[in-house]
Every structure is written in C-alpha cells, then in structure tokens.
Amino acid sequence: MAILEPFALAIGFLLSYVYDYTASYGYSIVILTIIINVIIFPLTLRQTRSTKRMQDAQSDIKRLQKQHKDNKEELNKAMAAMYKEKGINPLGCILPLLVQMPIWFALFRVLREPLAFIPSSSSLSNSLAVSTSLKFFNMDLQIPPSEVAEWIERVPYLVLILLVILTALYQQNQITKKTGKSDNPQAQQMQMVGKVMPIFFGFISWTLPTGLVVYFLTGNIFRIGQQALIVKLDDKETNKKEDNKKENEEQQQNPVQEDSRKNRKKRRRK
C-alpha cells in the first residue's frame, strides 16, 4: 500500500538510527516502541482516565439503570448525558489501537522487506545484507513463529506470545478490575473488547514477524507503567481535592473555632 510507505520509510530510518547506538536489532525495536508510545502518550492518558472514570461511575450507572429500568430509550439518553458530564468515552480504549494500526502495518513491511525501507548507507542495512537474520534471544525477528521448523526452537517464540497475552490481560485488568458487571450495553462492549483483544493479539502473533510481537510486548509493559503512574497521580489529586472540600465544610460549620485558630496563629507570628 502506497499510503504506508512514508510510515515505513520513517520507521526504517528511526530503526537504523537507534541501531547505530545499540548494535542490536531487537533492542532497536524495543527503543522504537518506547519512542512511539511516548509520542502517543496524550491518547493513552485520555484512554486511562476515561476508563477509570467509567469504573468510578458504576454507582451512578446502577442508579440510572434502576431509575429507567422500564424505558431503554430514556436510559440511553441519561447514560449519554452522564458520560458527557464526567468525560467518559466507553470505547476510548480502542482509539490508541486505531492510531497505532498504520505503525503496525508499516513495521510489518519494514521487517518483511528491510532493505527496501532502511537507508542503504546505514550500519543496519549492511548487517542485514551480510546476514538474512539478526537474532534476538535466539529468535529471528524477521519471520513469524509459525515458520520455525523445530518445536524446540519455537519455545522462545511461544514464551514471547504468552507474555504478550498475559501483559495485555494485566493491562486491561489494571484499570477495570473494580468495575464489575454492568447492564449497560456500552460498558459491556468495552469489557468485551478488553477480554477479546489480548487473545486476538496472541492469535495473530503466531503469523506475524517476531519483531512486531516484540513491539506488542514492549508496548504492553510500557503502558502498564504509564497507567500505574496516571492512576497514582489522579488518586493523589482526588484525595487532595476531597481533603480541601472537607476542610472548607468544617470551616463553614465552625466559623468561630476557625477564627480562633487564625487568631492563635497570628499571635504566634507576633
């Protein structure tokens, strides 16, 4: 596809540039993955916060379901209004995947035809010209696991695919573990996508170049760290707001006591 060629050329150039410093095809893909995930971090941030807001809004969702249990049309309207008010996108988890799809296809082409997209003057191009494969933990990154002949040689490939599935499941569970079951169709759709996608990635990894599977695994691990940091910072900010709110309420309820505290502080300063 001609539309993917600019992406493939950009990835080929970046891959060759990183290879000059790492001298490892596999680690070059790992660093390339990290760079791409840093670039799309704003999307990951929106996705994580939207999913967490969905989790936090479960009590409101159940209340609306009970309130409009006999009128699905009114329920959908009320749910849409609540999602808009709280900044929730039930399908927000799909957006980062859609953005990365051109990158996956471009990396697929680079791994399949590296000499067509990697600059001919680069050290990576020279290494590929001498050897048809560059090993990474005894894995040929240019071929899919399905093309490995001996089962004993497939072991590292199978371990890699298993890690892709497990990290993807953990990544989904990291945010949605407290959500629980929901009767809302949009929430159910989001939960279904979260369960199916890890299995889907494991399935397609069997027939994709192993370098792309390394990209999947690195991306999963990086996003697990990102999500943990985002949740920690958001929880800290939420707790801070709640403490300020309680403090303001206490001040309103006990204005005399608060004034006496302020006066004592002023005396101490004098």
Write the layout of secondary structure elements.
Elements: H1 5-22, H2 25-39, H3 41-56, H4 58-67, H5 72-86, H6 95-112, H7 114-117, H8 123-130, E1 135-136, E2 139-140, H9 151-176, H10 185-205, H11 210-253, H12 255-269
Antiparallel strand pairs: 1-2
Commentary on this structure:
This protein is mainly α. It has one domain (2-243). Helix content is 78%, strand content 1%. The protein is built from 12 helices and 2 strands. It has helices at residues 5-22, 25-39, 41-56, 58-67, 72-86, 95-112, 114-117, 123-130, 151-176, 185-205, 210-253, 255-269; strands at 135-136, 139-140. The protein has a two-stranded antiparallel sheet. A hairpin with a 2-residue loop joins strand 1 (135-136) and strand 2. Helix 1 (5-22) crosses helix 6 and helix 2 packs parallel to helix 11.
Number of helices: 12
In round numbers, the mean pLDDT is 81
Distance between the termini: 77 Å
User: Could you give the count of β-strands?
Assistant: 2
Unreliable runs: none
% residues in beta strands: under 5%
Helix coverage percent of residues?
A: over 70%
| Spatial strand arrangement across the major sheet | 1-2
- Integer count of domains: 1
- Class inferred from helices and paired strands: mainly alpha
Q: Which key phrases capture this entry?
A:
270 residues, mainly alpha, 12 helices, 78% helix, elongated
Summarize the entry for a quick read:
By secondary structure, this protein is mostly helical.
